[in-house]
Design a protein that fits this description.
- The protein is an alpha/beta fold and 241 residues long.
- It has one domain (5-224): FAS1 domain, CATH 2.30.180.
- It has helices at residues 10-17, 97-102, 108-117, 119-123, 136-140, 144-150, 156-164; strands at residues 5-7, 53-55, 57-58, 129-134, 167-168, 181-186, 189-194, 203-204, 207-216, 219-224.
């Protein structure tokens, strides 16, 4: 079954960040990659008693240095109520997912970092994908000194690796997330998925989906309330725990 490459810098970033398994579901041993023409529901990914794992494959590409971003230019507040996000956009499906994210003020910091990292160029090569998009206030939860370290030019690969965890290489609706499953985002690195009763309180990698299923022409956006970070980051990582 063919795997899909989504973030070229994932392996290089692994050397900086020390990725590992973030899932507590030790019973999940099988790893399944999605075909280009398969959805998660078609492969029964994240299904109940026999959970499978979505795979994001890594490859290595040289880092092109970029200017350090001034963290003071990032917006750390939401200007729109969560339930009102995207309400002013008529027919969201006429825009691609990243273009749609640019139109929502609450996602301005996420979009800025996506463009700073160069991941927007990688997304252009995908036919469809899902964004788990943290709000501005989600980034405000990060300690200032850690956010400042994250946007340094020498940490571009690390920034890419973290943003990678916010991108799924298929269109995934909220109904397709199942409790006690996991998503693989790097070598031996997983995001646990938790879902409450009646598909409520969905969490991916500890971040809660606060607005779901914003449909774009090439995928889906789910808004989340926290930045997803691998939980076993090395202590000496610039933004480690």
């Amino acid at each position: 079954m063919k795997k899909r490459t989504i973030i070229p810098m994932a392996l290089a970033a692994t050397m900086l960040f020390g990725f590992g398994c973030a899932s507590s579901n030790d019973a999940t041993n099988d790893t399944t990659a999605m075909d280009d023409d398969m959805t998660m529901s078609e492969t029964q990914t994240m299904a109940g008693d026999d959970p499978e794992t979505v795979v994001v494959e890594e490859s290595v590409v040289a880092v092109t240095p970029v200017a350090t971003l001034d963290v003071t230019t990032l917006v750390m507040e939401n200007t729109t109520e969560i339930d009102q996000m995207f309400e002013s956009v008529e027919d969201t499906e006429q825009y691609d997912a990243l273009e749609l994210a640019r139109m929502e003020p609450n996602l301005s910091t996420f979009v800025t970092l996506v463009e700073q990292s160069g991941i927007n160029n990688d997304l252009d090569r995908l036919e469809e994908f899902t964004l788990l998009a943290p709000t501005n206030e989600a980034f405000a939860k990060l300690p200032k000194e850690k956010l400042e370290a994250l946007v340094l030019s020498e940490n571009q690969a690390l920034l890419k690796a973290i943003l990678q965890a916010h991108i799924l290489p298929n269109e995934v609706s909220s109904l397709q997330f199942q409790n006690n499953t996991q998503i693989e985002v790097g070598e031996d690195s997983y995001l646990p998925v938790e879902v409450g009763v009646n598909n409520t309180n969905i969490r991916v990698g500890g971040a809660q989906l606060v607005k779901t299923n914003i449909e774009a022409s090439n995928g889906m956006i789910h808004v989340i309330d926290s930045v997803i970070l691998p939980k076993d980051a090395q202590d000496d990582s610039p933004i480690g725990y």
